[in-house]
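can u do me a favor
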């Protein structure tokens, strides 16, 4: 697939993840739907070993094709107890809860990076860990 088509496809997926996360935010230690979305997305990526280190946290490990160091990437997944008043069509559908802090964007971008890296895993050295942390 051409690089432009990969980028366009991935961009659409990252935006879809972001919109889903933004629309249905969850407070710390209540991120069951959020962590479910993350887990499902990671499980659909080649080579990801997905685990749940806490009831609402998610971790994935991607082993490269060659030996090397371990690198970790992390994103917070919780929202804040704030009423969204943006008027956006993608505004929070959960009264009194929103991603006012950008965690929804961070999660979507980290999922995008994980997808890109999973597609290149045989070329990578070492191990990559993707940590999605609840309750910042």
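np, heres the sequence
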């Amino acid at each position: 697939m051409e690089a432009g088509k990969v980028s366009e496809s991935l961009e659409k997926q990252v935006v879809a993840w972001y919109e889903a996360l933004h629309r249905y935010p969850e407070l710390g230690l209540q991120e069951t739907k959020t962590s479910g979305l993350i887990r499902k997305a990671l499980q659909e990526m080649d080579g990801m070993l997905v685990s749940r280190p806490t009831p609402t946290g998610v971790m994935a490990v991607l082993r490269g094709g060659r030996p090397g160091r371990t690198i970790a990437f992390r994103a917070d997944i919780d929202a804040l107890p704030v009423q969204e008043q943006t008027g956006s069509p993608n505004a929070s559908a959960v009264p009194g809860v929103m991603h006012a802090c950008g965690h929804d964007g961070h999660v979507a971008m980290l999922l995008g990076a994980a997808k890109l890296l999973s597609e290149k895993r045989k070329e990578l050295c070492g191990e990559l860990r993707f940590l999605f942390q609840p309750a910042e």
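The mean pLDDT is 95. hope that helps!!
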